[in-house]
Structures are given as structure tokens and as C-alpha cells.
Amino acid sequence: MNIVLAQNVSLNSNYAVSNTLQHLVRLLSGDDDIAFSLICGRNEAVPEITKDGFFSFHEIDTGMHSILGNIKYALSISSRLKTIHTKRKVDLIHARYPFSALLGATLFKKWVFPSVRIIYDIGSPWIEMMGERFKWLSNRIFKSSLHRMESFLANNVDGYYFQNEDVAEYYQAHIPSIKDKPCEYLNFELDSHLFEPRPFNHSIAKTLGIMQGDLVLGMVAGLARMREVDFVIKSFAKYRNQFGVDSIKMLIVGEGPERKNLQNLVKTMGLDDIIRFTGQVDHKSVPDYLSVMNMAISHLPNKTVFEISSPLKLMEYLVCGVPVLASNVKAHRRLCKYSSNVFLYENNAESFCSTLHALIKRVPESKEVLEERQFLKECFGSNTIRNNLVNLYSTVLS
């Protein structure tokens, strides 16, 4: 089968969707039964993953967060699809959100090859997510218009790839035809080949002023206001004061527009030596940073976009052997049936502190987290993702 994977994002940008796209590319590359092409956004440098030559690679110079950029991408991939199709018939287009890829695939289907099959891959309620991130996109009328356009384009879709059942249920309210099409659920885009327990990284620890005997609470996150990392910092400070635990430190791994404000907050609290920021790190090195953590935080605010998500970071923590302190939202509760090492707190500082204290008491016994790794890997790992995806391809093409 000849598959084209399309998404308006570069492979090496500082977005979670870029890491996910790279993971999907690795899963599909080098398969004798799949001829594979990728059409993505322009990259600042040649991505390492493209150098093996296992697939056809196409870049389009567009903007992910601009209306004009997405329109340009849609028109451009329609043209690129025609070029690919001229060399070998395109059987299926795997169009990932937002719907600029779906628009381009639809134009190709209408104008060039009506028999092509289209899978629409929706990893999150992205219209709501963009509204949270960019205020100019939060207008109710504008969001309603985007939903109507997405629903219109969905008439050309032959199958869906959702992050989980909750995302599918959310979208059925906007795209009623979903219930009549084949669906598969990703659940987690877990790269189980990358995320695995690693030895304590002395180099990283030394750079961050962490001793091997220190108690470290860590967090890997994009530092955007919508993530409410300030709540986590303030609650952590309250815990140190309330329980008198001076030996605990906090490590925040990640970058984002709120980093400067958060660092100023930490400085104001006089916790510069206790709470450390790494800034942006290479995705491949995240497991090394997890190696210096005794426990980790997955904080999701009580908002629809987070409630129905699949919190990938939480799963990455667990498969690396790190027990997790997590906010009590639906997305986290869903995971609790797979792990006994997720400790839920309510969205207030008092609950955060008491739950963290309970978790600290469990840290010496956290070896059981490692025992869950094989089970989680089998349920949500790379091989499972690939099998589910190929099964969906086969179903849609049959």
C-alpha cells in the first residue's frame, strides 16, 4: 500500500505534535509492505530521521498557527500529492490535525483521484486547545465556524484515528457521520523504545546541583499559562513550609512563554536553589532527566481540552519507573486502572501537599513501578500503536 502522512508541523519544532509525528514516521519507515511519504512543515535543519531514505520526504514552508499558513499548506499538499501520485498511485492519505491536511487531501480527492482513501487523525480537541492558547481564536462564532468547516470536510473521510474514546465522543457532537466509519484509538503516542528506565545521570545531576541522595520532584511540561505551572510551584513551596521537608528539591524540564514569569516567581519566594529550570532539552534526553527524579508531576487543569486528553507525560514517567503525583481529572483517572503508582490530588494546595506527603512515604517502595513497565509497554507501546494503525489502514482500504 502507498501511504502519505501529512501534518502542518515541522519535525524538529518544540511542540509535542512534532515528537508524535517523528514517532509515527519511525513506526511506518522501513516496512516492506508500506510505501511511505511524509508531507510536513519546513524544518530549520534536515531532520535526522529523514537521512536513512526509508521514505519520500516533502517540506512546505508554512505557519502552523496562522490562517494563511494553513491555507497555503492545504493547497501545497494537494499539489505534492499529485506529484507523488504520478510516480505511484496513492492508496491512502493519513491526514493529521489541524484540518489543513484534511483540506488538502479532500482537494486531491475531488480534483485528481476520487478513489483515494482518507484517514483523519485527531489527537485532541484542537480547536478548543487553540482557543485556550490564543485569545484571538477563542471567539465563539469563530470556533463554531471552524467546527462547521471540519464537519463539512469530514464527509470525505473514510476512517478516523482518535487519541482515545473520549475524544471520539467529543467529536461525534460536531461530526455525526463518525459513528458510521471505521475508528481506531491511539490512547497514547508512547515511544516505548525511547522511554525506559535509565541509570542515574550524574552529569545532569551535577549541572543542576542535585546529589544522588536528594529527594527530587520533577515535572516535564511546556511552560504555557494554560498549564498552571505557577499553581504547582506555589503548592510545592507550601508543602516545604507546612511539613518542614527541607531535603526536597524540584526540577522543571521544558520551555515556553511563561518561563521568565515562573523564574521570577521562584526568585521572589527565595527558592532559586531549590527549584531548578532546565529550559528546552532534546526530546531524546528526557529519560535522562527522569533518571534524577524520585517522583514526577502531571498537572492538568480542569478544562475540557485536558479532561479528555491522553496525558502522555504521565505514561512516560511510569514506564521510566517514576511514580506520579497527578491532578484529579478524568484523563488521569482513566489511567489509574492500569497503575497503582498514580497519586491523585484535588485542584487545591492543601490536597496537593497531603498527597505529595503520602507519595514521599511510598518512594522507597517504588520498585513496583518498574514491574508495571512491561504491562504498560504491551498495552500502549510502539508495537501496539503500529499494529492498530496498520489494521486501520487495511480496514479502510478493503
The count of domains is: 2
Biggest sheet overview = 7 strands, parallel
Corresponding CATH architecture of the largest domain:
3-Layer(aba) Sandwich
CATH T-level fold name of the largest domain: Rossmann fold
**Cα-atom Rg, whole angstroms?**
22 Å
**Termini, distance in Å?**
11 Å
Give the topology string: H per helix, E per strand.
EHEEHEHEHHEHEHEHEHEHEHHEHEHHH
Assembly context of the chains: single chain
Comma- or semicolon-separated keywords:
alpha/beta; 2 domains; six-stranded parallel β-sheet; Rossmann fold; globular; 398 residues
Describe the structure concisely for a colleague.
With 398 residues, the protein is an alpha/beta fold.
Can you put this structure into words, describing what you see?
The chain is an alpha/beta fold and 398 residues long. The chain has 2 domains: 2-190 and 381-397, Rossmann fold; 202-379, 3-Layer(aba) Sandwich (Rossmann fold), CATH 3.40.50.2000. Helix content is 44%, strand content 16%. It is built from 16 helices and 13 strands. It has helices at residues 16-28, 67-87, 100-111, 126-133, 140-153, 165-172, 202-208, 229-243, 259-268, 286-290, 304-307, 312-319, 330-336, 349-362, 367-380, 382-397; strands at 2-6, 35-41, 56-60, 92-96, 117-122, 159-162, 183-185, 215-220, 248-253, 275-277, 295-298, 324-327, 342-345. The strands form 2 sheets. The chain has a 7-stranded parallel sheet with strand order 3-2-1-4-5-6-7, with helices on both faces. Strands 10-9-8-11-12-13 form a 6-stranded parallel sheet, sandwiched between helices. Helix 1 (16-28) links the parallel strand 1 and strand 2 (35-41). Helix 1 packs across helix 16. It is globular. It starts with a strand and ends with a helix.
